[in-house]
Amino acid sequence: MHFRSELGLTFIHVTHSQEEAMALADTMVVMNHGRIEQSGSPHEVFNRPVSEFVARFMGGHNILKSSQGLMAVRSDKILVSEAARGGQPGLQADLMDVEFQGSFSLLSFAPKAEGAEPISVMLPEHLANANWHTGQTYHLQWAEADSHALKPSIHQSSPIAA
């Protein structure tokens, strides 16, 4: 139980730290140029950012262009394989880098689609120890339920999370 619950107090805590906001907040508000981009529980804001701005600010999301507009897919929800698996959305990308992070590795990919920005994939240690080859083309796929559309952001600048 948090001390604020024990004391029965409500407080507003302003921070630029996503981790601090998620750890302390019951309700989190992400602001952009003094306007609220999204509010909700930390779990909701992290897992379902409503705009490109919130997804980028919270981190851990890839912003992908689709025929319906921009969408977000968390970096830990993307599967990497040498061959495409039917029935799931995805794309082809070249492996650029593998960065060991301890209990997981962060793989960076360059999508084959022109103008697409790099994609990050977070793999747990037992999967990250595979024999990855930089420069090789892999198939990146995700479950339809793990992607969601993003609305345009109010502005693109320095955020404030409370």
Name a few traits of the molecule:
alpha+beta; five-stranded antiparallel beta sheet; single chain; 162 residues; three-stranded antiparallel beta sheet; 11 strands
Summed up:
This protein is an alpha+beta fold and 162 residues long. Helices cover 18% and strands 38% of the residues.
What does this structure look like?
The chain has 162 residues and is α+β, with helices and mostly antiparallel strands. 18% of the residues lie in helices and 38% in strands. It is built from five helices and eleven strands. It has helices at 3-7, 18-24, 42-47, 52-58, 125-128, and strands spanning 28-32, 35-40, 61-66, 69-74, 79-81, 90-100, 104-111, 119-124, 137-141, 147-149, 159-161. The strands form three sheets. Strands 5-9-6-7-8 form a five-stranded antiparallel beta sheet. A three-stranded antiparallel beta sheet has the order 2-1-11. It is globular and about 55 Å long.
